[in-house]
Design a protein that fits this description.
By secondary structure, the protein is α+β, with helices and mostly antiparallel strands. The protein has a domain of 142 residues: Immunoglobulin-like (Sandwich), CATH 2.60.40. The protein is 31% helix and 37% strand. It is built from 3 helices and 16 strands. The strands form 5 sheets. It has a 5-stranded mixed beta sheet. The longest helix is centred in the C-terminal third of the chain and has 51 residues. The N and C termini lie far apart (94 Å).
Length: 271
C-alpha cells in the first residue's frame, strides 16, 4: 500500500515538474532570424541583410549556426561591435560561433552581409545547424530565414541605409476596425456614448510586435444604454424616495396612535 502511494506521489510530482517546465519553455523561446524577411531587388544590385538574435527574456551567452548563401554573391560580412567571434562567418563559409561578453537578454544584430543576386526569381536564405546557448546549456529557440525576389527594386543609395532597412520592422496592411457593443461602450478613454474600436496589423521579423490602433466613435447602442441607465437610476432614486416617504408616514401614524393613547390614559386617570 505504501509503495503504491509513493508511486502515485512520484508520478504526480513528475507531471507537475513537466508541466511547469513546459510552461517555462513556451514562455521563453528565443529566436534567431534573418532580416529583412522579404526583399525585391534587381539582378546585380547590392543589398544588406542582417542575422539577429531575440533572447525573449532568456539569458543568451553564445549563438552558432550556418547561413546558406549558395544562391547569392556575397561581397562582405561585418561583425557587430562588442561581440566575440570564436568562428567568424565569411563569404566562402558562413558558419559562425559568436559570444556575448557577460551574456545578454537584449535583441542584437550579430552580423550584416552585403550581397547581390545573379538570377531572376525567388531565393531562400536559411539558417541551419543553429544553437542558442545560455548559462552552460542550450536554450529552446526557433529560426526564421528569408525569401528574396530579384527583379524589381532599385539598389540602396548607401550602405548605412541598407543596414537600417535590414534591422527595420516590415508591417502588413491594417485589419478591419472591430469593437464589442456589449463591453466596449465608454471604454479606453471613450465617452459614455462612444464605442471603443481597435484594429491591428502584423509586423516582421519576429522581434517586432503586432501594432494596435484605437479610436472612439459615436454609437447609437452606447447612447441608448446611457438613456437606459439614466432611466434605471431615476427609477431607483424615485423608489428610494418613495420608500422613505412611506416610512415617515408609517412612523407618523405610530406616533399619532401613541399620542392618542397617552391622552386617553391621562384623561381616565384624572377621573
Amino acid at each position: 500500500m505504501i509503495k503504491n502511494k509513493l508511486k502515485i506521489f512520484g508520478i504526480t510530482g513528475l507531471l507537475i515538474i513537466g508541466i511547469f517546465s513546459f510552461n517555462i519553455t513556451i514562455a521563453s523561446v528565443s529566436s534567431l532570424y534573418v532580416s529583412p524577411v522579404t526583399l525585391n531587388k534587381k539582378i546585380g544590385d547590392s543589398f544588406v541583410m542582417a542575422v539577429s538574435i531575440n533572447p525573449n527574456g532568456s539569458k543568451v551567452c553564445a549563438v552558432e549556426g550556418n547561413l546558406e548563401l549558395d544562391k547569392l554573391s556575397c561581397e562582405n560580412i561585418i561583425l557587430e561591435e562588442g561581440l566575440m567571434a570564436q568562428k567568424m562567418p565569411s563569404c566562402s563559409d558562413a558558419t559562425f560561433l559568436i559570444g556575448f561578453p557577460n551574456c545578454t537578454t537584449e535583441n542584437k544584430i550579430l552580423f550584416t552581409i552585403k550581397a547581390h543576386g545573379n538570377e531572376l526569381g525567388l531565393v531562400d536564405i536559411n539558417l541551419v545547424d543553429a544553437d542558442i546557448i545560455g548559462m552552460g546549456l542550450s536554450l529552446p529557440f526557433i529560426t526564421t530565414g528569408a525569401s528574396y525576389n530579384f527583379s524589381l527594386e532599385e539598389p540602396f543609395e548607401n550602405f548605412d541605409d541598407a543596414i537600417q532597412q535590414a534591422s527595420a520592422c516590415n508591417c502588413g496592411e491594417w485589419g478591419e476596425w472591430y469593437g464589442d457593443i456589449q463591453i466596449d461602450c465608454g471604454q479606453g478613454g471613450c465617452e459614455l456614448g462612444q464605442l471603443l474600436q481597435t484594429r491591428e496589423r502584423e509586423c516582421s521579423p519576429i522581434s517586432c510586435d503586432t501594432e494596435v490602433e484605437n479610436r472612439c466613435i459615436a454609437d447609437d447602442y452606447c447612447a441608448a444604454n446611457i438613456d437606459s441607465e439614466k432611466t434605471m437610476q431615476t427609477a431607483t432614486i424615485l423608489g428610494a424616495l418613495g420608500s422613505i416617504k412611506y416610512r415617515w408616514i408609517f412612523t407618523g401614524l405610530i406616533l399619532l396612535i401613541l399620542i392618542i393613547w397617552g391622552n386617553s390614559y391621562l384623561f381616565k386617570k384624572k377621573k
